[in-house]
Write a structure and sequence with these properties.
Length: 215
């Protein structure tokens, strides 16, 4: 795998059917090294802290190969940073297990959650239905926590290290977010993995609604 683009966003206002939205989703490629730390990407802007950012979702990465897929499916251009990712990685699989790691030089990233599309992404794409299209594609990109900080640059080699103890996949959690029915054994299995706190709270909420304790 190879780091194809590093993308930094600044606060901007975009407009769509829902009206103006102030967001940090508009990320553009940068040539200089980017520093990844436990709290996030240095110099990157996050507006909606309730849904984005934090140690468990410090870095968002998307596969350059999945952008190729979108282009082939739609005939539209898809460029690095379009979905608001910090890292665009050539060869990164669409699905990984929670706990799997990416090594980029001295940086160690740990997969923690899938990206769930929101109205801001639809506004960015200027397509009200894009959230449904993104869901159907099942190529959500991956949030990572930063286990070891450092600078990364375009062209860096990216090494994938699977977590042999993990049996919870990114796509399982992506599908969980939309499912109307849930298997309690699966929910407990999800909680056994190092899932990002926002997803963990969702899973615990589902268990509680079923009259079960999260533990």
């Amino acid at each position: 795998m190879q780091l194809e683009s590093t993308n930094i966003g600044h606060v901007e206002t975009i407009s769509h059917n829902s009206g103006p939205l102030t967001t940090g989703i508009c990320k553009n490629p940068v040539a200089e090294p980017v520093y990844l730390e436990e709290s996030g990407v240095r110099g990157d802007s996050i507006v909606d802290h309730e849904s984005h950012g934090g140690a468990d979702q410090a870095v968002y990465a998307y596969s350059a190969d999945d952008y190729d897929w979108w282009k082939n499916e739609t005939g539209r251009e898809f460029s690095p940073g379009l979905f608001g990712e910090n890292l665009t990685i050539r060869g990164m699989p669409s699905d990984m297990n929670i706990g799997d790691r990416l090594l980029i030089g001295e940086v160690v990233l740990e997969a923690s959650a899938p990206r769930i599309p929101c109205r801001v992404l639809a506004a960015k794409m200027q397509r009200s239905e894009f959230g449904l299209e993104f869901r159907a594609a099942e190529r959500p990109g991956i949030y990572f926590r930063v286990l070891n900080s450092g600078a990364v640059s375009v062209g860096n080699v990216v090494t994938y290290v699977a977590d042999a103890s993990s049996n919870v996949s990114i796509l399982e959690l992506f599908r969980f977010n939309y499912a109307l029915r849930h298997d309690r054994a699966d929910l407990h299995r999800f909680l056994s993995a190092p899932v990002a706190i926002r997803f963990r709270e969702k899973i615990e909420g589902k268990l509680e609604s079923m009259g079960l304790e999260p533990g």
